[in-house]
Amino acid sequence: MEDFENNTFEGDSSMFSEDYRNLLEIKEVGRVVLDSEIFKEGCGQVHHGTSTVGRHTLEVTEEALHISDVLESHGIKIDREELIKGSLCHDLGIIGRHEKYPNNFVCWLAHPHDSVKIAKMLYPDMSKHLSRMISRHMWPATPLTPTSREGWILDLADTICAIRDVLPNHGKFSRFDYS
Ligand SMILES: [Fe+2]
Ligand SMILES: [Fe+2]
After folding, report:
1. Which end of the chain is least crowded, N or C, by CB within 10 Å?
2. Does residue 129 belong to any structural domain of this protein?
3. Total domain count for the chain?
4. CATH of the domain at 28
5. Tens digits of per-residue pLDDT, 86-108?
6. Is 178 inside any structural domain?
7. How far is the CA of 112 from the centre of ligand 1 (A)?
8. Which residues of the chain register pLDDT less than 70?
């Protein structure tokens, strides 16, 4: 089983596997988020009933890079750095949801915008592109569609991971041990 923190990969001797490279890339590009207090707090908040915000965040980021690998193999260019930042920040606004929002409906609508505010604190010079990726990641639950390739990838990766979380054997579908 892969270990995110220690970069150890039992049963996989390939140091250059796609998954391994993606994890290193997430750690390098996402260091600001991964080292933040808000992210650590998210590792203790239950998400989708079976996961945590921290775990879900990492799974979405890894899934987004996996989708990117497939697209890039067909010659489609992806801004991987923006995609990693957006994926790592997309649900940070949901942390503390029970204190912040009166119900799940308000949480659905408001958390993408709160995630943008937190992302701006972590990345003060964040681009409009990154801001839009985060604020529109809940489509079709919210009406505004993503506006970029990376935004659509994040939206798709988030949906895939959310569905995995609510399936009966959710743990078995996760490729990594983030504990
Ligand atoms: Fe979300
Ligand atoms: Fe999410």
Report:
1. C
2. yes
3. 1
4. 1.10.3210.10
5. 999 999 999 999 999 999 999 99
6. no
7. 6
8. 1-16, 169-179
